[in-house]
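Researcher: I'm preparing a figure for a lab meeting and need a structural model of a single chain. I don't have an experimental structure, so a prediction will have to do for now. The sequence is pasted below. Please return the structure as tokens so I can convert it later.
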Amino acid sequence: MKQEHMEKILKIGVQLSAERDLNRLLDQLLTCVMELANCDAGTLYLLEDNFLHFKIMRNHTLHIYSGADGTVPDMIPVPLSRENMCAMALLEGRTIHVADVKESQEYDFSGPIRYDALTGYHTQSMLAVPMCNREGEKLGVLQLINALDETGAVRPFPEDMALVLKSVASQAAITIQNVRYIQAIKELFRSFVRVMSSAVDERSPYNGNHTRHMVSYGDRFLNYLNSLAEQEGKSLPFPPSKREEILMSIWLHDIGKLVVPLEIMDKPARLLPEQFHAFFHRMEVLSLQSEIDLLSGRLTDTEQEALVRQIHEAEVLVRTANTAGFLSDETLESLGRLAARTYTDRNGQMRPWLTPEEYAMLSIRKGTLSKEEREIMESHVTVTDKLLSQIQFSQEFSHVHQWAASHHEFLNGSGYPKHLTDGEIPVEVRILTILDIFDALTADDRPYKPGMSIEKALSVLKIMAEQEGKLDPNLTRLFTQSRCWEDSDG
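Model: Understood. Here is the structure written out token by token.
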């Protein structure tokens, strides 16, 4: 092996070992091998289901360079049969060289001949190099076409090139296998994350699409932000690695809800079911007692009718206040008057129409959760922080823990759990927070409130950004412009 070949092989090894994207790796591999062999065209096949599938194609004369972006060349796979030169090379684990395909009787070259007829290309010399790993596992084939001499004329591939390319193919096979292993591990992790996220959403008949919606919106929003940068000639603010890290944070942002009791997470009304039934049972007893008092002469018809009307008004008030999204001052005052009313039971004991516990729950001005219940609900971000801190994230996902656990922080410091402020909240968290609030506002599957219209939700986001100082004004404006919720599969 020549010194120049050795140097090139070492250089190729360094280049290949640094690449982790499989498509770019394959394209880089074929490019390097073609330069090493000084040939005009080449194809890289990978073995799948007993067929050699085209992955990368390069042809300098025809200006064809396909496959590096993941797009599979539109070519019929080659069956793993002995009449095909590239298949034979893999089956027997040896490099095969043909000086002129039109003079060869040993292999079926009808495919290249048809290709030449369609494109006007002239296929002459060919070299097929098998790619096998250390264990002898067959991975694919490098097929090179039309070796060139110093003048650019087509010639047979030199005999010593077979050994050189075999060495390159061997280390390439190991690199391909390693990249595949890495991809398999990553996909296993992604699958685990999706399962855990689905477990959170599937715990409840409500909120089941929340995370999937956020991922869908987030994916579109990041695309939009990247497109704006491209239009301005700037580098992408969210390249593939960072995009995936953000989307991973979205998938995991609510993982702490696994430990939130369902009776809190799914609470559709202010009163607990037992409190609701106890109140209406009490009203029924009061109504029956009024009839007894009427028959016994303790109440007049007018007094009994007034009492029944007041009981009905109390029922309407409690039923309305129990599920209202927001309580007005007038409603709160009415509840206070109801809580102050008492009656005497059959044992002569003074009883309230509305117990202190019921009054406390019904007096929640906004939402359905009491202060204690809200603290439990908000603890999901602390639990998210605790759970994710136990995962050894790789370098490319090193921010997932921090971003996912910070999605309820606001720029003005009024968020939770750490009350971070503007300078402490990265742009990725700001995006996640906007997505989370938008979907919470528009969701129509929540038991405690109807979903808002899109325009109303955007108005709320604008107020939170421009008046309250909670959200990033520029990102909120761009989010509105992006319309990233449209055409969602959620």
